[in-house]
């Protein structure tokens, strides 16, 4: 007996989720603002609802995957949510998730928020390693754990409905730092006779080799001792920054992505202890 699922939103992500539930044999009711997008899924066995209200009424488990928080508001305004288990996979801020949780509870629904750590081609492909961060109503999560785990993996991060969005945004923020670093690296080699395709594996391997340093950062943040296990101390790294800036200048590359981080390193050195790791930058940001 597979849990029946209602899904609102058949964009790129919603459609991928729908296919995964259908393939696993879950009865599925779908609704999309533009009805044409539901056509192909109906042929694959989905029930289509004419309105969002009808789709919500069909099943206890209601999954929403729309563009943004405003589209969730617009879609569910006036819809009876009494007794529903509402799972919102729409990307938003932690504050939007908390507000949405209170809003759902006031309408008699249970609420679970999700942050999708996958792109559509990873959905329904367990080897791809995609998952969703969930936060909010733990009972709802436990009750529907199996159905929720069908499209991608599940990682529950706490009762605070905002935590899924916070984890999602934190990971993606770190990713943008990596993208920024890679953009600078490619810019450095651009004018030279260096094949970016030969350079890329060197870059990828280096990023992978450096990634576990986050565990040391975490240990230092927990203990409060930023010299613990230090490998390359702050004074040495700040002394090295002119090399990076001069190299950028020599290659005709703007240092606008690198400079803000170097400025924080220098500020921390000026205020603190050169024997520390780079962890003090976290304090400067989170002050
Ligand atoms: P799409 O742009 O492909 O689809 C957007 C969906 O939202 C469509 O179903 C659209 O309906 C609907 N929609 C937009 N505005 C409204 C509205 N005012 N009222 C009702 N429905 C509305 O986006 P995705 O499917 O890719 O993304 C959906 C969510 O998943 C987003 O929050 C996104 O951040 C998140 N996500 C997406 C990832 C991705 O790689 N695609 C990765 C991780 C998260 P219509 O067809 O009528 O336009």
Automatic annotation (TrEMBL):
Query: What are this entry's molecular-function GO terms?
Result: NADP binding; oxidoreductase activity
The reply on keyword Oxidoreductase is yes
What lineage does UniProt assign to this protein's organism? Bacteria, Bacillati, Actinomycetota, Actinomycetes, Kitasatosporales
Q: Per its UniProt record, what SUPFAM superfamilies does this chain match?
A: NAD(P)-binding Rossmann-fold domains
Q: Tell me where in this chain the NADPH-dependent reductive aminase-like C-terminal domain is found.
A: 160-286
InterPro entries recorded:
6PGD_dom2, 6PGDH_NADP-bd, HIBADH-related, HIBADH-related_NP60_sf, NAD(P)-bd_dom_sf, RedAm-like_C
Keywords of the record: Oxidoreductase
Does the UniProt entry include the keyword Oxidoreductase?
Answer: yes
* Chain ranges of the 6-phosphogluconate dehydrogenase NADP-binding domain: 5-149
Protein family membership: Belongs to the HIBADH-related family.
Name of protein: Dehydrogenase
